[in-house]
Design goal:
The protein is of the alpha+beta class. Helices cover 60% and strands 10% of the residues. The protein has a five-stranded mixed beta sheet, covered by helices on one side. α9 links the parallel β1 and β2.
Length: 407
């Protein structure tokens, strides 16, 4: 396979404008006979325009290729010292030095202030040793103004920018984790109400169904009267429990807008949120949805979709808190039983890297795994989670048909 050459983005409009203004100013100074070193006659006066043109040509590339522009700019400003000199050439070089620190790679941004500082000190010492006059220190001062000053200014600006970006990312990550924790709290409350509904109301409805069937099947007034009594008693008790649960739901949602039930269609958005939050921890998130699409694939019941969505959400939250740097893979598959009668099973698989991670870990109580297991078992499925070598695996098999959901 051939190597792909990185594409250099087009020059920024401001950089082009800066280059035009700088070169125009240099041409004006040259035409007026204003030179930075008028006593030098090694080369004709027009030779000062060559470094000016080279340095001006580097200005449009100061953002996209800072390393190249700095190297060429350094050669240009050195060549300028052998001519009558142009102040615009020196000014352009200071801007190239500044841009190399601001837009260059982190390693270069760290090295340049130190390197230019050492060069400034070395030039000052060498000048004094050579000329042996106090005025020779001005050579070192000028060197520092041209090289060390712009590098230090660029490093300061870059540090401020990086600190602001890091603070914003930390705030966004904290807000996202807080939102996911809030969503988990809502899920836990709904699961508690679902368990209460199953334990306290479903038994009454089952009793009503059994005794109503008996009343219709057995032609006996005494049996029918006894069955109706049991039906009335369970109806009253079930209605009281239902009213209590409805009251809890109304109190919990007072003053809040109704929230739509999440489905598997929202997994892409869920992974996108987890991806922005985990970039700083070295985590990547991949979604592999291998379910058959309509018309071959039947739609899933809402309870199954909700349970699968919450299991993925909890797994992603645990990965954000505990996973080592690497790739978190979410896979959805659906297999049909022989004959395609019962709709088969929906399998949710989440694999995250297991191991040490930099920085502190968020403590875990294990409540998330308990909640996922309860959700799966409530729908009549199977759940398992645990470590396999260097991977933490979560597997949930959910019935893909409404009739498979337990009463």
């Amino acid at each position: 396979m051939g190597t792909v050459t990185p594409k250099i983005p087009p020059p920024h409009r401001d950089d082009v404008l800066l280059a035009v203004i700088s070169v125009a100013a240099g041409l004006l100074l040259w035409s007026l006979g204003v030179y930075s070193s008028p006593g030098r006659d090694l080369l004709p006066d027009w030779a000062a325009l060559v470094p000016l043109g080279v340095l001006g040509a580097m200005e449009p590339l100061r953002r996209s290729a800072p390393r190249v522009t700095l190297a060429v700019g350094t050669a240009g400003v050195i060549a300028d010292q052998f001519t009558v000199g142009n102040l615009a050439s020196v000014v352009i070089f200071t801007d190239l030095m500044y841009a190399a620190v601001v837009y260059g790679k982190p390693a270069m941004a760290r090295r340049l202030p130190v390197t230019t500082g050492l060069i400034t000190v070395a030039v000052a010492i060498a000048s004094v040793a050579w000329l042996r006059t106090p005025q020779a220190l001005m050579i070192g001062v000028i060197t520092g103004i041209v090289s060390f000053g712009p590098a230090l200014t660029g490093a300061t600006l870059r540090n401020h920018r990086e600190a602001a970006v890091a603070a914003r990312l930390r705030a966004e990550q904290t807000a996202l984790l807080a939102e996911m924790d809030r969503a988990q709290a809502v899920v836990a409350e709904r699961a508690r109400m679902a368990r209460e509904l199953h334990d306290m109301v479903a038994n009454h409805l089952s009793a009503i169904a059994i005794h109503s069937t008996a009343a219709l099947s057995i032609d006996s007034p005494a049996t029918s009267r006894e069955a109706l009594g049991v039906i009335r008693e369970n109806s009253v008790q079930g209605l009281a429990e239902m009213r209590r649960l409805i009251g809890l739901l109304r109190d919990a949602g007072a003053g809040q807008e109704a929230v739509s039930v999440p489905s598997l269609d929202g997994l892409a958005t869920l992974l996108e949120q987890a991806r922005a939050s985990g970039a700083a921890s070295g985590l990547e998130f991949v979604l592999l949805d291998e379910r058959p699409r309509p018309p071959d694939g039947e739609p899933l019941p809402a309870p199954v979709e909700l349970a699968a969505y919450r299991i993925v959400q909890e797994s992603l939250t645990n990965a954000l808190k505990h996973a080592a740097p690497g790739t978190v893979t979410v896979r959805l598959t659906r297999d049909h039983a022989e004959g395609g009668i019962d709709g088969g099973m929906l399998t949710v698989a989440v694999d995250s890297p297991y191991g040490e991670r930099p920085g502190p870990r968020a403590p875990g109580s294990g409540a998330g795994l308990i909640g996922m297991r309860e959700r799966t078992e409530l729908l009549g499925g199977e759940f398992r989670a645990g470590r396999e070598e260097t991977v933490w695996r979560v597997r949930a098999a959910l019935p893909a048909r409404e009739k498979a959901v337990r009463a």
